[in-house]
């Protein structure tokens, strides 16, 4: 059972290199009650690619979640401010 929600959305942009990437992760239970870490990444504005990892415990999933977060932060990804369509 997952004790708390885990969701992350970060971006890396560099207009001089025409780079606009996103990376998203979440941990949620699968149908069998196991922890599932789902990752999605790609160019901003596209669907991107998706990969899922299944673990017996939430702790195992959190370890990978935090490790991937550290890797992305070292590569220059940062939290993105997402605006709703109703913002002016």
From TrEMBL:
Q: SUPFAM superfamilies, per this entry? A: WGR domain-like
In terms of CDD domains, this protein maps to: WGR_MMR_like
Write down the SMART domains for this protein, in alphabetical order.
WGR
The residue range of the signal peptide is none
A matching Pfam family: WGR
The organism named in the record is Metarhizobium album
List the InterPro entries.
WGR_dom_sf (IPR036930), WGR_domain (IPR008893), YehF/YfeS-like_WGR (IPR049809)
Q: Could you tell me which residue ranges the WGR domain spans?
A: 5-88
Please report the name of this protein according to its UniProt entry: WGR domain-containing protein
